[in-house]
Amino acid sequence: MTTPSSNPLIRHLHPASVSEPWAREFAEAIEVPVNARQLVLSGVGPQVVDDAAPAGSVQAYGDTAAQTLSVIRQIEATLTRHGYGLGDIVSMQALLVADPAADGVADFEGFSAIYNQYFGTVAQPNVPTRTRAQVIRLVPPGWLVEMTVTAIKS
Question: What is the pTM (predicted TM-score) of this model?
Answer without folding.
Answer: 0.88
